[in-house]
Amino acid sequence: MVQEHPQKGVSNPSLAEAILACKCPRCRQGEVFTHSALNLRKFDSMYTECPVCGLHYEVELGFFWGAMYISYGFSVSIILMAGVLLYYLANDPPMWVYLAVVATLIIVSTPVLFRYARIFMLYFFGGIKYNPAYSNR
Fold first, then answer.
1. In sequence order, which residues have a C-beta less than 8 Å from that of residue 24 and are 6 or more positions away?
2. Which of 14, 15, 46, 106 has its CA at a distance of 20 to 30 angstroms from the CA of residue 25?
3. By the 8 A CB rule, do 17 and 27 touch?
4. pTM for the full model?
């Protein structure tokens, strides 16, 4: 759902759209990451500040260390889902199949897990509130 900016008529993404698009939590317009997740050499490269509103992304020193716990939670979820699906859909295959599938899934999804763990940290633990006045400054 896109919301209209009350003063300028500029459309701003909803919370879910901004999170999925990895946008700044304050203006929901600026990019957080400098390169695509498909660029495996620079998938972790972030802007220090939002290019639109100037928000400094690292709220405090070491802020993103907490994202490791979120990423761990994502990984555990993937492992559990893969295990349950393999058990029921592949008729409980040998242990090496579980290990190979889970290892492949985690390695392939690492760039996405890394990014969304940091985005969740910014949105839910950064204490940053959305303010449409910062959009398109």
1. 18, 30, 31, 32, 50, 52, 53, 55, 57
2. 106
3. no
4. 0.82
**What is the rounded distance in angstroms from the CA atom of residue 62 to the CA atom of residue 114?**
15
Q: Which residues contact 23 (CB under 8 A, 6 or more apart)?
A: 13, 29, 30, 31, 32
Per-residue pLDDT in tens (0 to 9) along the chain, 137 residues = 444 444 455 567 899 999 999 999 999 999 999 998 888 899 999 999 999 999 999 888 889 999 999 999 999 999 999 999 999 999 999 999 999 999 999 999 999 999 999 999 999 999 999 988 887 65
Please count the other Cβ atoms lying within 10 Å of the Cβ belonging to residue 105.
15
Q: How many CB atoms lie within 10 A of CB 119?
A: 23
Amino acid, single-letter form, for residue 107: I
Contact 22, 119 (CB under 8 A): yes
